[in-house]
Amino acid sequence: MRFISPKVDYAFKKIFGSEQSKEILISFLNAIIYAGEPVIKSLTIINPYNPGQVLSLKDTYLDVKAVLADGSIVVIEMQIASMAAFNKRVAYNLAKSYSNQLVKGEDYPLLNPAIAVTITDFILFKETEAVINKFRFKEETENFECIGGELRLIFVELPKFKKSLSELNSLTDKWIYFLKETGNQSRAPKTSGFGISRL
Q1: Which residues contact 61 (CB under 8 A, 6 or more apart)?
Q2: Rounded Cα gap, residues 187 and 43, in angstroms
Q3: Rounded to a whole number, what is the distance in angstroms from the first to the last CA of the chain?
Q4: Domain coordinates of the chain in residue numbers?
Q5: What would the pLDDT profile of 1-42 be if each residue is shown by its tens digit?
Q6: Which of 34, 110, 118, 133 has the fewest CB atoms within 10 Å, i.e. is most exposed?
């Protein structure tokens, strides 16, 4: 009997987006955003439904949405198949999560940073072999930042990850391996170290 793949929509949301998932989500986000460093200590998992503040705006549904202790918003999506204008969809969801923080009359200093973590089961960036790619606004010629870390895009491309179980040497490796390979396993591997008490 094989395990259900965590890439499947229901499984992904159950693993990372349920009320019992806080420790798991903290470990995963620390691995992907902060290279395994325990930067995130606590978070709140919130409703991933992302309505428009204006009735004419498109409603969107995210896989997982969380607010970190510092107020930062993290939206997480798992995408199995490539689709038209996928990059635009990711950018739209990030911008919408950022802009939906304010209502009429509130001031811009109340805005908190927003991070989009997108995991794909297909190759998105053919120009690099890197499994994880991180983007933020920078000046095109001299590469200095415009708005700091207010808006960040982080992509994890599972097909680029080639390590075997014996080659995993970081929390990041373990989480990417878990996402990529669990659906191909018939028994749990003899490994630990996800930074949580149970998985």
Answers
A1: 48, 49, 50
A2: 31
A3: 19
A4: 9-184
A5: 567 899 998 899 999 998 889 999 999 999 999 999 999 999
A6: 110
